Amino acid sequence: MAEDIAREEVQMAEGVISNEALEEWKGRIGLKFRIGNIFNRLASYEAIRNYVNGIGDINPLFRDEEYAKKTRYGSLIAPPNWYYSIFPTWVLQGLPGVHAFHSGNDWEFYKPVYMGDVITPECIFTGFDVKGSQFAGKTVYEYQRANFYNQRGELVARTDLWLVRAERRAARKTGKYSQIQLPHPWTEEELAKVEEEVLAEEVRGSNVRYWEDVNVGDELPPVVKGPYGLTDIIAYCVGAAPVQIAAHGVQLRLYRQHPAWAFRDPTNYALEPVYGVHYNKLAANAAGLPAAYDVGAQRQGWLIGLITNWMGDDGWLKRNYAEYRRFVYHSDVVWLRGKVIGKYVDEEDEYCVDIETSGVNQRGENTMPGRSTVALPSREKGVWPLDRRVR
After folding, report:
1. How many Cα atoms sit within 13 Å of 95 on the Cβ side?
2. Which pLDDT tens digit goes with each residue over 319-375?
3. DSSP bridge pairs for 360
4. Based on the structure, what is the number of domains in the chain?
5. Which residues pair with 36 in a beta bridge?
6. What one-character DSSP code corresponds to residue 290?
7. What CATH number corresponds to the domain at position 276?
């Protein structure tokens, strides 16, 4: 028996996108989902620390209590991307055995999350489209909205998001990404240069960035992540646990209830979650990818770090939008960059800049085009965006 299993590739549940299932979905539009995999509710020091460690964020505003006490917040706060550690912003529904690829978020941030706050999420199904793709033929774009409330019932953040649902057998058959050379053949000299770029990350911090000092065309100091590896995804799981990860009988009981959530690993005979596509090559192959790949929410978390580094302690990230256009595989490097493309006073009389962002890999592909809006202090008007938001 063991020898038979060992000869096989990973066998995941193989579902199809049926017209009957999509008809059922039409009746669900507007309904709230039950969120069964909430990881963090309490913004404790440990929950914030584990998350910023999991995305490699060095900003002291989110790490150092003594430093944070001296800021306008007066306390340690969670970074805007910490909401991903509550739950991944989406709920998997229906279409068993049809893979879900989280493909983007459009965030709006309203109030900070302080250490000690308790956050409650809700998730609403907002619609879907049926499309074709080169990757897997017939696909479904599924749309959801996640809202986040603090213990006072205040809406602190909202995001609209989309998932691409694709049939695994079709994705394997097309082999769209099969020609990518993986792991990437880095030289020692190239790796040394990447590591220097990683260590050159700049954090604006307490050095106030005033609106008057920003010009259209300014480029943000880049943030570099990689080469992306196994420990990076482990650290992210410690900080965000995007799926219901447990062990032994706890997990086995869950798989008995939801057989499509697991597969038998032929190398160690253990049942593993489908989420293993992010750290298990055989699992990724079963989903139609050549190697294990990153988590979309993890990558957008890196992007938000680029913005918070640049805007400094006194700026406010109002909006952050990103599309996940390419996979980031183990051994890849991503250069996160931004450029100021607009500067204006908005309808809320806040002094804003718009930033176009990218996440380019070593193959020259923009894996994550996006844009953000940041409110900055005005030196001339004496306006501070945090005055209307801090408690």
Report:
1. 23
2. 999 999 999 999 999 999 999 999 999 999 999 999 999 999 999 999 999 999 999
3. 335, 366
4. 1
5. none
6. S
7. 3.10.129.10
